Amino acid sequence: MIHYLPDNYPDRLRAIFSGLVGGLACSAMLLLAGCQTYQPEALARAVHKEEFKSRQASSESVKKFAKRLGETTSYNQAFDASNGLSLGEGETVALVFNPDLRVARLRAGVAEATAEYAGLWDDPTFSFNVLNIRSSVPDPWIIGSALSFTLPISGRLRVEKARAEAAKHAELERVAETEWKILRDVADGWLSWSAQKHQLQQTESILVALDSVVGSTSKLAREGELPKTEAALFTIERASREAERDRFRGAVAESEQKLRSMMGLSPSAPLKMISTLSAGRDVSNAKEPNEGNPTLTRLRSEYAVAEQTLLREIRKQYPDLTFGPQTQIEQGQSSIGFVSGIPIPILNANKGGIAEARAERKVARAIYETEYEKMVGRLAALHSRLDAINNRRTTINENLVPLVDRQVSDANRLLALGEGSSLVLLESLLRSSEAKLQLVSIQLDDALAKNEIRYLVGPDNRK
To answer: How far is Cα of residue 443 from the mean position of the Cα atoms in its chain?
Structure first.
């Protein structure tokens, strides 16, 4: 192994280098045996593109997820996208394919990986030293080696494990919070899309009424029984309503694409959605969030992490023991023993880490408490909004709608008898259409407010 050394080297020097090379070789073999290897993994862009385009709301993965959801929560809706996708079914699709949820779940996997290997003992340290005595002695070489272990007598590693588990739970709660937010956003988008569809239908209905009136007023204008300027007003109003119809069509198409994106579906995926102006479970009487609110649950978990962090920093002020066997050869004499060491916590004692952890715990407590306060305030504001919405709806339904419907009927009857004014009829038609559009807007405001209340209160996971 050292045949390349000159023959005049002392035998002891040969032994030194043999031991050194042998020790290094053994250390390298142990190191390689315990190490993992790197494997590059390129982005499979073409594969992902095809997978994205092939996703469907009726896929088997969505059906299986809906079944599991029904087994673990109060979700009891039969999933069947063949007859069109309802709001509840759209929420299920989003829970499977939503891109933000995918990232959140993978980030939780990082915390799980950290928790799995947290609290492991530190790797042992192998040391080797060679010294040469400069003065002339028969055997001038001093050879020493030691293998040291760290014994965690402070309990720090156990706390590290507990903290990593708490952090993992906090990340899992963050995933649940993200899921709940996605459900809120999908419902908001679905309700807005549904309202736009209703508004589009109402605009198309007024266009049909205007088409009929335009024909009759144009005929009256040609026969000289109606001023052309009055007849032209109907044509102008019809053109204006056609532009409004085109605006609603564009809004409906845009909202549908946004919903597709939230559900993780491609723009060209086959999809038929069923409109609704109901947000589902009505919890509008709730005055404060329940214990299952995902945001508050996640903040409680983060407070638990802050507690474990403080405990870890406190444990760090207590020293861990370093010990291990040691060998030494000096002037031809071999000796064996132990080496050990322990820090003395009298100068640092991790005072900075402990102070910072205490301050972070106060912050975590304040974040939880203030978030609860803000939620209660937002719920109170939403209840005030609902009261105003209900008052508006009552006024329009009981006062405005009957009046404008009667006005349209009377104006049509009088105009047919030649006793009415075409301008009165036009104004009546427009008022009727505006009242019905207002009702759709009120329904949307009511549904959005109730959906926000549902979000703040939290899910009902009872079976």
So the answer is: 28
Measured distance CA(265)–CA(411) in Å, rounded: 49
Tell me the pTM: 0.81
For residue 54, which amino acid is it?
Answer: S
Is position 59 within any domain? yes
Same domain, 175 and 283: yes
User: Is residue 184 a contact partner of residue 451, using CB atoms and an 8 Å limit?
Assistant: yes
Measuring CA to CA, how many Å separate 234 from each of 357, 403, 415? Answer: 73, 22, 14
pLDDT in tens, 12-30: 444 544 544 455 445 545 5
Rounded CA separation 319/341 (Å): 10
Identify the DSSP state of 273: B
Q: Let me know whether 290 and 398 are in one domain.
A: yes
Kind plus residue range of the DSSP H or E element containing 145 = strand 141-151
- pLDDT tier for residue 417 given thresholds of 50, 70 and 90: low
**Number of domains comprising the chain:** 2
Does 291 share its domain with 433?
Answer: yes
Q: Which domain holds residue 7?
A: 1-33
Residue at 253 is within a domain = yes
Distance, CA of 256 to CA of 373 (rounded, Å): 35
CA distances to 34, 203, 407 from 399, rounded to whole Å, are: 81, 22, 12
**Tens-place pLDDT, residues 393-403:** 888 888 877 77
Taking the C-alpha atoms of residue 27 and residue 109, their distance in angstroms, rounded to an integer, is: 33
Structural domain includes residue 186: yes
> CB neighbours (10 Å) of residue 98?
23
The answer on 110 and 3 residing in a single domain is no
Mean pLDDT within 227-251: 86
- Cα–Cα distance for residue pair 101/321, rounded to 1 Å: 45
C-beta of residue 85 within 8 angstroms of C-beta of residue 274: yes
The mean predicted confidence, pLDDT, of the chain is: 83
Secondary element (H or E) of residue 192: helix 156-222
Among residues 43, 176, 156, which one has the least CA distance to residue 108? 176
The CATH number of the domain holding residue 241 is 1.20.1600.10
Q: Domain check: are 27 and 47 in the same one?
A: no
CA-nearest of 389, 405, 379 to 277 is: 389
430 inside domain: yes
Same domain, 18 and 162: no
Helix/strand/coil for 426? helix
Q: Is 296:371 a contact under the CB 8 Å cutoff?
A: yes
